[in-house]
Amino acid sequence: MRLSGHRTGATGGVPPRSRALAQRDPLLARDLRIGRPDLGRAYDDGGLVDLNSAPPEVIARVCWIDLAAAAGIVATRRAVGWFGAVDDVFALGNVPLPLWDRIPDRAVVITG
Q1: Distance CA 99, CA 69 (A)
Q2: What is d(CA 11, CA 105) in angstroms, rounded to the nearest whole number?
Q3: pLDDT digits over 62-107, tens only?
Q4: Helix, strand or coil for residue 69?
Q5: What are the pLDDT digits (tens) for 37-59?
Q6: Residues 62, 4: contact at Cβ < 8 Å?
Q7: Crossing angle of helices 67-80 and 56-63, rounded to 10°
Q8: Are 108 and 63 a contacting pair, CB within 8 Å?
Q9: How many alpha carbons fall within 13 Å on the CB side of residue 97?
């Protein structure tokens, strides 16, 4: 089993199928707990974190950002309801620019 936030290879070790599954079938993605390393699960999603459901501590750990920035993401999520895409975090949130490159490879948004 791999530790959350551990990156391997050029794509960060994230299986492309995990992202595709999250977009194609959000209910199944939730059942498999994609993006929720804090919950027990058997499916290896490659170390993703769901910005629409994970608590700030998990977002901070997986995305390698400080807890205040992760708490800001969660506060924005609560204010807007949910994110439609990972890029919404940057458009709607208050994430400091130097942290932007740490989030997209590790984050997913599961909607629906």
Answers
A1: 9
A2: 7
A3: 999 999 999 999 999 999 999 999 999 999 988 999 999 999 999 9
A4: helix
A5: 999 888 999 999 999 999 999 99
A6: yes
A7: 130
A8: no
A9: 0
